[in-house]
Each structure stands twice: as C-alpha cells, then as structure tokens.
C-alpha cells in the first residue's frame, strides 16, 4: 500500500503538473476549437488562456491520479484488473466531458489515461522485480 501512496504523490506532484503544462501549451498554440478566437481575452501572448487551461487541466489530472489510486486499492496487485478498471472509468469520464462540452476535441484527454497507465505498469514491474 505504501507504493500506491508514493505513486499517487508522484502522479499529483510531477506528472500532473507536466501533462497540464504540456497540454495547455499545445491548446494555446494549436487549440483551434478549444480556444476563443478573440484576442482581447488574453492578448497576443495568450498567457491568461494558458493559465486557465493549465489550472483546469491540473484539477483534471489530480482527479485522474485519484482514480488511479482508487483503482490500485480496488484491484490490489493485479495489474490487468487495475488498468481495465482505471481506463474504463477514464473513458466514461472523458466521454462525459465531450458530451457536456459538445466538442469531440476533448478526446485528447484520453492520452492522460494512457500515460498514467504506462507509468502504473512501469511502477508495478519495478516493484515486482
């Protein structure tokens, strides 16, 4: 159980921060339908839009980290059950976001679940060796 707490801490403090910054940078640079075309909101450097997306995505990634921790607690040491549970909940969560926003561009958030699943698998393999 201690390793799940360590993994949760790393997910929240490091990986969530990096993914949120990367996604926010991508959205403000190439966002298209996710970013308002009106430049008066943030000016030419889009720092306000970047900050808004970063904070929103960071909250999302903390929620994803919490789901990964919950899936680890439910599944125990069975990696396949853990990943199936985590990704099924993730698909439902991202699908709900896309439905509520009426914009399929938010499907890129599934990449977060892929990244966290890969990190979880790597940590699980390291612990078993």
Keyword list:
single chain, 4 helices
Question: Which class do the helix and strand fractions yield?
Answer: mainly alpha
Number of H- or I-type helical stretches: 4
Low-confidence stretches: none
What does the radius of gyration come to?
16 Å
Portion of residues within helices: over 70%
> What sort of overall outline do the alpha carbons produce when their principal axes are compared?
elongated
Strand content: under 5%
Number of strands: 0
**Helix-strand pattern, N to C?**
HHHH
How far is the N terminus from the C terminus?
17 Å
Sheet bearing the most strands, described? Answer: none
Q: What is the compact description of this entry?
A:
By secondary structure, this protein is mainly alpha-helical. It has helices spanning 2-30, 47-75, 79-101, 110-128. It is built from four helices and no strands.
Task: Provide an overview of this structure.
By secondary structure, the protein is an all-alpha fold. The protein is built from four helices and no strands. Helix 2 runs antiparallel to helix 3 and helix 2 packs across helix 4. The mean pLDDT is 84.
